[in-house]
Automatic annotation (TrEMBL):
It is found in: Cell membrane. Residues 82-295 form the ABC transmembrane type-1 domain. The chain crosses the membrane at residues 20-45, 82-105, 117-137, 149-170, 190-217, 273-290. The keyword Membrane applies. This is Putative aldouronate transport system permease protein. PROSITE patterns: ABC_TM1.
Length: 305
């Protein structure tokens, strides 16, 4: 009997115990990651008076929907903001993934004459940019995108970091033999890209798609710069405005007699937690669609053999 066989048998004898330990550690780590969001959700359903008297509790003494009633007083505005955010997230993610993939594929091919120049061009934008004022002038005056959904989509459409990840992914996972086989069969560059390269690049594309989705969903700064129309305000920006209004009422309650009654009925802490739930909850359901490819795409795209 060889030494390797003995070691293999010993390993299999110990594997159930090690599997239990690994699963326990992974389960504890997963609980620590999920617990903050669950705790925020619980607080958002807690009665404001109970929260003020007893503090934060995992199981509150009294449940309440007052925080959500307060936020949903916006009514149609909240639904419009959800619609705007969903629209720019879907459209922006598609545009971002396609543009990043096309750029990254071009600079990943060794036979592309100007690959080094365009790779440096993309990398340079990771270090330096034109600044806030020139960007604002270009978006509002040169392109005329003030109060437009494109003002929320285009600034985040292309990211040099995503391009670099995809370039490494294409160089590692798409061998030149596949490209040559496509050319032998008579396929053009776009045919090779869409029929051969993209099906092999789903992990990398899903990773970049997740990054783009999170970026568009959580963006509020571009709306602060370019959006004045209430019909085009995204969700994050609208929730921020509600938070600012609450803070304004709280700070000026001593000087305005009409604000005292409003302040007493306002769910201050629980409404903040409800904002987190409303802003985070929908995007949580998008993660399972990317989870299958996320780890593989991130690790392969970040490290080149």
């Amino acid at each position: 009997m060889s030494v390797g066989t003995i070691k293999s048998r010993d390993f299999h004898k110990l594997s159930p115990a090690w599997n239990f330990i690994f699963h326990a550690v992974a389960g504890i780590f997963a609980l620590l990651c999920v617990f903050p969001f669950l705790f925020v959700t619980i607080i958002s359903f807690t009665d404001e008076a109970t929260l003020a008297s007893n503090g934060y509790q995992i199981i509150p003494e009294k449940w309440s929907l007052e925080a959500y009633r307060y936020l949903f007083k916006a009514g149609d505005q909240l639904m419009r903001s959800y619609g705007v955010t969903i629209t720019i997230t879907i459209v922006g993610t598609i545009i971002g993934v396609v543009c990043s993939a096309l750029f990254a594929y071009a600079i990943s091919r060794r036979n592309f004459k100007y690959r080094n120049f365009f790779a440096f061009f993309a990398f340079f934008t990771m270090l330096f940019n034109g600044g806030l004022v020139p960007t604002y002038i270009v978006m509002t005056q040169l392109l005329g995108l003030k109060d437009s959904l494109w003002a929320l989509i285009l600034p985040l459409a292309v990211n040099a970091f995503y391009i670099m990840i995809l370039r490494t992914f294409f160089s590692t996972m798409v061998p030149d033999a596949i490209i040559e086989s496509g050319k032998i069969d008579g396929a053009g560059e776009f045919g090779i890209f869409f029929r051969l390269v993209l099906p092999l690049s789903l992990p990398g594309l899903a990773t970049i798609g997740l990054f783009c989705t999170l970026g568009y969903w959580n963006d509020w700064f571009n709306a602060l710069l370019y959006i004045d129309s209430p019909n085009l305000v995204p969700l994050q920006s609208m929730l921020m405005r509600i938070e600012n209004s609450m803070q304004f009422i709280m700070k000026n309650s001593q000087n305005a007699s009409l604000s005292v009654g409003v302040l007493q009925s306002m769910p201050q802490d629980t409404s903040r937690m409800a904002m987190v739930v409303l802003a985070t909850g929908p995007i949580v359901f998008a993660y399972p669609f990317f989870q299958r490819y996320f780890i593989q795409g991130l690790t392969v795209g970040a490290v080149k053999e």
